[in-house]
Amino acid sequence: MNSSFLLSITTFIYGLAAFLYIAFWVFKKPLPGRLATWTAFLGVIGNTMGIIMRWVESYRLGIGHAPLSNLYESLIFFSWTIAVVYLVIEKKYGNRIIGAFTTPLAFLAMAYASMSPNISDRIQPLLPALKSNWLIAHVMTCFIGYAAFAVAFGISCMYLFKQRDTEGKSKLLTHFPNTNILEELNHQLVMFGFLFLTTGIITGAVWANSAWGRYWGWDPKETWSLITWFIYATLLHARMMRGWGGKRIAYLSIAGFFAVLFTYFGVNYLPGLHSYGAS
Amino acid sequence: MVLLLSLAATSIIGTIIPQNESPAAYFQAYGDFLYRLFNVFDLFDMYHAWWFQLLIILLTINILVCSIDRFPTTWKIVFIKKAPFILSKFRNQADNEYFDDSRSSEQLKDIYESFVSKGFGYIRTEQTDEGYCIFAEKWRWARLGVYGVHLSIVLLLLGALIGSFFGFDGYVNIPEGEVANSIRMRNPGQNISLDFGILCEDFNVSFYDSGTPKEFRSRLTIIENGKPVFTKDIIVNDPLRYRGLNIFQSSYGPLPPKEVTLNFTSRKTGKVYKKKALAGQQIDIPETGGKFVLKDYANSYKFGGQPIGEAFLGTLTHNNGSSVDIVLSVRFPDFNRMQKGDMVVSVSDYTQRYYTGLQVTKDPGVWIVYSGFIFLIIGCYITFFMSHQRLCIDIVNKGQTCRVMVSGTANKNKLGMQNKIKRISEKLIDLKTNT
User: Fold this and answer.
1) A233 touches chain B (CB under 8 A)
2) What is the mean pLDDT of chain B?
3) What ipTM was reported for this prediction?
4) A7 and A60: one domain?
5) Residue with the larger pLDDT of the pair B107 and B4
6) Poorest-pLDDT segment among A78-82, B164-168, B340-344, B402-406
7) Residue A279 domain-assigned (yes or no)
8) Do A147 and A70 reside in the same domain of the chain?
9) What percent of chain A has pLDDT over 90?
């Protein structure tokens, strides 16, 4: 049993969890809900074990490094953070329907990592530029931020569905948390994500200064992370200073998440320094 | 806000159009019209274009003006001597918690005071017409967090400005064993002389089995007034810092070897003679006579259009005076055998020399930027997750029992404060049963 195999199994566990959450949402029976939570929890354990095993395996290969160095490893960690952030919210707010909108994201990230022919799951040695303790700090903070934005995205979608149905006609929407809670959760997650994105950009800048002698170079990934940062900063200002709420904030949150996705995947198609993340 | 979004939108352009390439490359990629249009707007170096800089300056002014505009109000709230509490406001709030207790209001006051003082920094009890009222608050200063964030952004931009005026970004290539006393600027390309010398004692590159580079390492010695001051090995991610200058490992390249050991194999006797050759120096060929001059070294030599890698070039002069240019491939020792001659010359051994490519930067603004970073993280944390919380516990005598009201406000995260009030209320009820 190696880490790749374990992580492939984890992919299916997340898939099952997503399926159970959706079943719980559609059929409103408590059993699939409870099962979904346990399955998601099992998925997180498998995911954690997979990451640890991969770390150990890299040391056995004599090229030991934290498993955060390429697209495959970052996607695995991305799924992990999404699942953990979601489970914390479930514990805190006690609503399982949010799971139907967030665990599929964890599943998709894992599935993309495991199945895509363009993504190699081989453990590769680190390039000289990546050999730094800042690697762990930079990648971890960025992805915790991304995961918070991903969950905020799911919640914003729920908000948009919920607010269209003010009279409570749709049976699918009756057990959604009410719009106030969804809005508040969205805001909390965006703030949490913003703090981590900020820290992520800063650790990246400090690292760049120690590796290349400059803390900011307008590299496409840097620029796109700044664009993402601007969008969420706009969201926070619009809410606090202009009293924006509801739909407009939800749309901004969704726009922000698309910027995150582009920062993560799209930038690989542009020339730049972060090319390690591409394969 | 418009500024934030327009900065975001224009930054996108810069990621799509590759920056700082040669005009010819742009001309080819975009054609005549687009090239001229883009050039007018400086889109090929847009992050340094006047309009982009103007947007950044506008953003800074905006931040400063907004902050200065609001700051006095916040200042008055934060630095007030006696925190104002208006009981009627708390009583009129919608989400207050209520419960009854059978003990006297004095007893309850003492119990609650000691409980509340654990969680709140400021506490004050006032006597009311019907009993007691406990006010408490904490994190009043958290209202200043947002100014910390804005100040940090201004610091970042200030640091960047100082860096761009008083700093520089240059590079220098130093062959192993040589000293550099000046560096070349990246933009514009002029030389700057240093008041010390950088000696590259040694350069090494190591590879993984897969062929990807593992480590670039340069051993550098700083020379002041002809004397070595100190030596340090630098690798990527571990630069040398000296007198405000940062010296980074950036690139490397091969240099022609100074000395090479050649094998002269006689076709007649099969005997092998080893000879050391220095570039440009003539050596006598044993057995058959004649001379050989080592002329050049090529890192990737092409022979008849085929790349053969590293190769030495030399001239072989026969006894009869006729001379022929020969190529000595490092990878294919038998290469010279194909060129007919009495002596087959091949490369036996040589030490590869490298030059190390160093990036030399100076940025006096970097510490301002770093302090901006720290302010930014702390400021964001305070702004997002700490709010000025006020708590009010109102104890009202109602004959045999007391009516207790728990109420609170926060300047941020109101839902969280509501939940907190519920929790505090539950704990206060628990206190009742415990004592």
Assistant:
1) yes
2) 78
3) 0.85
4) yes
5) B107
6) B340-344
7) no
8) no
9) 30
Q: How many CB atoms lie within 10 A of CB B270?
A: 7
Q: Does residue A54 lie within any of the structural domains?
A: yes
Of residues B4 and A247, more confidently modeled: A247
CB A103 within 8 A of CB A17: yes
Question: What are the structural domains of chain B?
Answer: 14-48 (no CATH), 83-139+387-434 (3.30.310.80), 164-256+355-375 (2.60.98), 259-350 (no CATH)
Structure tokens at B165: 């005026």
Between CA B188 and CA B184 the distance in angstroms is: 9
Helical axes A71-93 vs A30-60, angle rounded to 10°? 150
- Give the residue-averaged pLDDT of B255-266: 79
- The answer to whether residues A149 and A83 belong to one domain is no
Residue A202 pLDDT grade (very low, low, confident, very high; cuts 50, 70, 90): very high
Q: Are residues A108 and A162 both part of a single domain?
A: no
pTM higher than 0.90 for the full model?
A: no
A160 contacts A250 by C-beta, under 8 angstroms: yes
A253 Cβ contact partners less than 8 Å away, ≥ 6 residues apart: A149, A152, A153, A155, A156, A186, A190, A235
Determine the structural domain holding residue A79 and report its residue range: 1-126
Max Cα–Cα distance, chain B, nearest Å: 133
* A36: in domain: yes
B7, B13, B208, B236: best to mutate for the A interface, most A CBs within 10 A: B236
pLDDT of res. B18? 52
Q: What is the dihedral sign for C-alpha A29, A31, A37, A43?
A: negative
Q: Give the whole-angstrom CA distance, residue B210 versus residue B190.
A: 39
Residue A278 has pLDDT above 50, yes or no: no
Residue A113: both structure tokens together: 């990592």
**B239 to A191: CB separation less than 8 angstroms, yes or no:** no
At B84, which amino acid appears?
P
Domain endpoint, select from A126, A154, A183: A126
> pLDDT for A6-50, tens place per residue?
888 899 999 999 999 999 888 888 888 889 999 999 999 999 998
Q: Is B155 on the interface with A (CB under 8 A)?
A: no
Q: Which residues of B touch A180 (CB under 8 A)?
A: 415
Please write the tens of the pLDDT for every residue from A129-181. Answer: 777 788 889 999 999 999 999 999 999 998 988 888 777 677 777 778 878 88
Residue with tokens 């020792």: B333
d(CA B357, CA B299): 17
Q: How high is the pLDDT of residue A79?
A: 93
**What local confidence, expressed as pLDDT, does residue A277 receive?**
47
What total number of domains does chain A contain?
A: 2
CA distance B157 to B60: 8
More confident residue, A99 or A219: A99
Nearest by CB to A234, from B5, B238, B361: name it: B5
Burial label, B320 (beta-carbon count in 10 A; 0-12, 13-18, 19+): exposed
Asked if A195's CB is within 8 angstroms of B380's CB, the reply is yes
Task: Kindly state whether A212 is in contact with chain B, defined as any CB-CB distance less than 8 angstroms.
Answer: yes
Residue B333, token pair as written in the block:
């020792």
Q: Do B415 and A198 touch (CB under 8 A)?
A: no
| Interface residue of A227, A262, A276 to substitute, partner B, most B CBs within 10 Å | A227
Neighbours of B143 (CB within 10 A): 20
Quick one: residue B97, left, alpha or beta (phi over 0 = left, psi -120 to 50 = alpha)? beta
Contact B359 A227 (CB under 8 A): no
Question: Mind listing the pLDDT tens digit for each residue in B201-251?
Answer: 888 888 877 777 788 888 888 888 888 888 888 888 788 888 888 888 888
Burial class for A95, CB neighbours closer than 10 Å (0-12, 13-18, 19+): middle
